[in-house]
Write a structure and sequence with these properties.
By secondary structure, the protein is α/β, with parallel strands linked by helices. It is 36% helix and 14% strand.
């Protein structure tokens, strides 16, 4: 693309601060969505948002084919964990932890979610555990795991529900 045309597109599509050099492209570009991943052998290809929420809230603990579900979250304090819990469950991290603890004490949950350090470790765990379900950002997807459709849409589709928001100052939320 010719430099002049690129500059015109930048003026039209980017905020003025970006064009003036006050914001980086990373601060202007949309943040990567969360992608829900499962083991490649899992016969489930799609979930409704409600089904996904029930799984992450540990209300649904087995896949339709009978295998036990293992929910995998990033470690506490990680932005992806906060985003996943907020978007999927509609709760803060603290509210989520209290809810899971309460359900455990009630005997409705045997084992809580697994905590994983990094996106690469998340992919490795889901790859090695046929009942696992986790998430990574779309830029961290690997072909070793299966990407699930949510409400019959994939990341990038305007209807996809697991889109992360940007916080004030350009930080991803």
């Amino acid at each position: 693309m010719a430099p002049a045309r690129a500059a015109i597109l930048a003026l039209v599509f980017w905020p003025a601060q970006a064009v003036q050099g006050q914001l980086s492209i990373a601060q202007v570009a949309p943040p990567p969505a969360l992608a829900v991943i499962v083991h490649r052998s899992n016969p489930v290809d799609s979930l409704t948002f409600g089904e996904l929420r029930r799984i992450f809230m540990l209300e649904t603990q087995t896949w339709p084919h009978g295998r036990k579900i293992t929910v995998v979250l990033r470690e506490k304090g990680q932005p992806e964990r906060d985003d996943a819990i907020r978007i999927i469950c509609g709760l803060s991290e603290e509210e989520y932890d209290k809810t899971i603890l309460f359900r455990t004490f009630q005997g409705r949950v045997n084992i809580g979610p697994r905590s994983i350090q990094s996106a690469a470790a998340m992919v490795r765990f889901v790859y090695s555990a046929p009942g696992a379900v986790g998430y990574v950002t779309t830029d961290q997807l690997e072909p070793s795991v299966k990407l699930l459709r949510i409400d019959d849409s994939l990341p990038g589709d305007p209807r996809y529900p697991l889109v992360r928001a940007r916080r004030a100052g350009g930080e991803i939320r």
